[in-house]
Design goal:
Blueprint lengths: L12 H15 L3 H13 L5 H19 L4 H13 L7 H11 L2 H18 L5 E2 H18 L11 H11 L22 H4 L11 E2 L1 H12 L25 H7 L1 H17 L7 H13 L2 H47 L6 H11 L2 H16 L10 H21 L7 H13 L7 H6 L21 H21 L1 H4 L1 H23 L4 H34 L6 H24 L4 H30 L1 H9 L4 H7 L5 H5 L3 E3 H14 L3 H7 L7 E3 L15 H7 L3 H11 L1 E2 L2 H4 L5 H10 L4 E2 L6
Helix pairs in contact: 1-2, 2-3, 3-4, 3-5, 4-5, 6-10, 6-14, 7-14, 11-12, 11-23, 12-14, 14-15, 14-16, 14-17, 16-22, 17-22, 17-23, 18-20, 18-22, 20-22, 23-24, 23-25, 24-25, 25-26, 29-30
């Protein structure tokens, strides 16, 4: 065999192997190796200035990477490098180094945790998905809930738990990664848009790079909810939970989820509302101001500001409720970064900063509340729907009590419930309560071992109870504020004061409420939430009823036909809604059918009005059994209806019914014979000698009492007469009547429709 010369491989000894190992560790993200390499580059003596600057820039890169991993020595060395003046301060490496030093320790730890999180989820790829991130956050929150408050925190997990979480999250993405493998802590990834320019921002699953997670960490440290969180669903349900179902089917297929999604949409709508007015809105307000006379400004301006304060309070309340929901998601981000920071993160700092960043709605709310209570004595009460405001205050009071009192846990805050109950007891009108007035008005106190006698006979219970409960309120608020080293002032006490403010609004508005107004407001609220789930069924049922009303059949057959067609219609629409190709046409189809049916029935009603007049058309729709409403419709403009009715004369009635009932012994026979005359009209003529008003019936006045007070006054003035007209009719004491009417806020009446 031919023998060649032996080849010798030259090695630089163990120092070269150590240097290569240190370079590999530095590229893998070892902060200690990065600092050692930076020291070597800075201490290396170079003859050329260009080599010195090159080593300095490379050392800066290593120090920046180590500083971003919260290495203390790297931070000090980086500060000395900036002050050394080797390169220009306006150069990119120095600017980047200053930006790194400007970050607080909290932000540095969060950045490192974000990179570790990305390395854990990416499995060597260049990106992760929002689904992976959402799943990891939910797993960490579930692990925290399983441990309970008395056990160790999440950063003390066992290796088995940590390994299981990593294995569950390390799922490969559906898309292929780039050619370059991510190296943790060496250099930053360039702009994401350059790698994925065609990705869809509105997709449910989106790709995230390390820069996205680092940006989320920066937002978190600044007390802001990360932008990535808006693409995740950390708290159920999601706003898009029912988007796969047609709109008209969502309500009756999933009524509870539908109401929850509707509540979330209200939160996001009012949460994004801004009090800044555009130029067009300011112009409209200026035109409205100029169109009002000077005499009306005295009454109009306080009323307008009163309504504006109510609207501002409602909007600010929804802003606070949205901030509360976002705070729950923010705490889940705290658990995520705490898990990957090895316990070095201080989540309380970021959470307190988040609370302070969302104090603006609270300030605006209490300012609007002050304006509202200040203007209350100066407004015209007849122009304010206190009943509706009372129902609104009642709903927002319990909504804020439940939302602010749960703190993300299924159990309410006991102190908040106790404080709310004590506030109710402190503001209860004991002096108007019959039981308290008669039985508890005076306390019969007896002292043991002394002669028995009444001690507190002159102490009123209502006064003592109100003072006692009022003194308890600040004590409970102070206990709530003392939580978490006085951090409860912003987290517990201030939100609870919002609930107490709506309680005060409820009490204030209740003084101007009416029974009909409360019923009206409650029905409006309930019917709104009941009609929405039934809207899809109504659009299917209307065409059936409109068609069958022109078919002659018995009531039983009519009812069965409606039910059968209703089931068939719902089955067909649900079948169409399940198909991907037809579900997008179901909602427009139902709306079109409903509009066609509405137009058709409206046309039939218009034809009846043209033929018989509006009153006859309404009476025909109402039916013969609704006599009270028919009487309400009978006035001076439906005389044609009166003329078309059947009348009997007085002589026939007297001979057949009146006289026999007194002359014959069996009055029941006459009553049975004349029962056919029930509801008939009798014509008679004669002289009236004496008139007494036995009762007065005014259906128009009854109808007006169901309307809000502001609309009721308009209604009375439009159809009725002013109280000033009484003086023209020579009514005695008309000036007294006018004075009472002005003081009570009444300007018109409907006495001309008395029956």
């Amino acid at each position: 065999m031919p023998s060649g010369r032996k080849r010798w491989n030259l090695h630089d000894g163990p120092q070269g192997s150590l240097r290569r190992l240190r370079n590999q560790l530095a590229e893998d993200g070892c902060a200690e190796s990065q600092v050692v390499l930076a020291k070597q580059l800075l201490e290396e003596k170079c003859e050329l200035e260009a080599d010195k600057i090159s080593n300095f820039k490379q050392a800066l890169d290593w120090l920046i990477c180590a500083t971003e991993q919260a290495h203390p020595e790297a931070r000090r060395m980086l500060s000395r490098c900036i002050r050394s003046g080797v390169i220009d301060e306006d150069s990119a490496p120095i600017v980047r180094a200053k930006s790194c030093l400007a970050a607080s320790r909290q932000e540095t730890v969060a950045r490192k945790a974000a990179r570790d999180l990305f390395a854990s989820l990416s499995n060597g790829e260049q990106y992760i998905t929002t689904a992976q991130l959402e799943r990891r956050i939910r797993e960490i929150c579930a692990t925290t809930l399983r441990k309970g408050p008395g056990e160790d925190s999440l950063d003390d997990e066992t290796p088995e738990e940590e390994r299981s979480l990593d294995e569950q999250a390390l799922e490969p993405s559906k898309l292929q990664a780039g050619d370059h493998i991510h190296t943790n802590g060496t250099i930053r990834t360039h702009d994401v848009n350059e790698d994925y320019p065609d990705r869809c921002q509105n997709d449910d699953i989106r790709n995230l790079t390390v820069d996205n997670l680092v940006s989320a960490a920066v937002d978190y440290c600044q007390g802001e909810l990360p932008l990535v969180s808006y693409e995740l669903t950390l708290t159920d349900p999601s706003v898009k939970a029912l988007d796969h179902i047609p709109i008209l089917h969502q309500a009756f297929l999933h009524p509870i989820v539908f109401l929850q999604v509707l509540y979330l949409k209200l939160l996001y709508y009012f949460g994004s509302f801004s009090f800044r007015l555009s130029n067009i809105e300011l112009s409209v307000l200026l035109i409205c101001y100029l169109s009002v006379s000077t005499d009306s400004l005295y009454h109009l301006v306080p009323l307008v500001f009163y309504y504006v304060s109510i609207i501002a309070m409602v909007i600010c309340t929804f802003k606070m409720l949205l901030a509360k929901r976002q705070f729950i998601d923010f705490r889940k981000w705290s658990g995520l970064f705490l898990r990957y920071s090895d316990g070095n993160l201080q989540p309380d700092e970021s959470e307190d900063l988040f609370v302070r960043n969302n104090l603006t709605p609270f300030v605006q709310f209490f300012l609007a509340l002050f304006v509202n209570l200040f203007l209350y004595p100066f407004i015209a009460t007849q122009w304010v729907p206190f009943s509706e405001f009372c129902v609104l205050s009642f709903c927002l009071m319990f909504l804020t009590l439940i939302s602010f009192g749960t703190n993300g846990s299924p159990y309410p805050d006991i102190l908040a419930l106790i404080s709310f109950g004590i506030n109710v007891l402190a503001k209860y009108p004991y002096e108007k309560d019959t039981v308290v007035h008669q039985g508890w008005r005076f306390l019969d106190l007896h002292i043991s071992n002394y002669p028995s006698y009444i001690l507190g006979n002159s102490i009123e219970f209502c006064l003592n109870a109100r003072v006692f409960f009022s003194l308890l309120i600040p004590i409970i608020l102070a206990v709530m504020a003392k939580r978490n080293n006085w951090q409860g002032v912003l987290k517990y006490t201030l939100p609870h004061c919002v609930t107490l403010s709506w309680l005060q609004m409820f009490i204030t508005c209740s003084h101007g409420c009416t029974t009909y107004g409360l019923i009206r407001g409650t029905l409006a609220l309930v019917c709104t939430f009941l009609f929405l789930p039934l809207m899809g069924i109504v659009t299917v049922t209307l065409p059936i009823i409109a068609f069958l009303q022109y078919v002659t059949m018995s009531k039983l057959l009519y009812t069965l036909t409606v039910l059968i067609w209703l089931v068939v219609g719902l089955t067909v629409t649900c079948f169409l809604a399940k198909s991907e190709s037809t579900k997008k046409f179901v909602t427009p189809f139902q709306i079109a059918i409903g509009l066609i049916t509405l137009i058709y029935t409206g046309n039939q009603f218009a034809v009846n009005i043209q033929e018989d007049g509006i009153a006859s058309g309404l009476i025909e729709i109402i039916g013969d059994e609704k006599s009270s409403i028919k009487n309400l419709l009978k006035n001076e403009f439906i005389t044609d209806y009166e003329d078309s009715l059947y009348h009997i004369n007085w002589d026939d009635y007297y001979n057949q019914c009146n006289s026999p009932s007194w002359n014959e012994k069996n009055m029941a026979t006459t009553q049975m014979k004349c029962s056919i005359l029930d509801g008939a009209h009798v014509n008679w003529s004669g002289y009236v000698k004496d008139v007494r008003v036995k009762n007065v019936r005014n259906q128009w006045n009854t109808f007006a009492s169901w309307l809000p007070q502001i609309i009721s006054e308009y209604f009375k003035c439009y159809y009725g007469e002013e109280f000033s007209s009484l003086c023209r009719n020579d009514v005695s004491d008309c000036e007294f009547v006018q004075t009472v009417a002005e003081q009570s806020g009444k300007s018109c009446h409907l006495n001309n429709y008395n029956e």
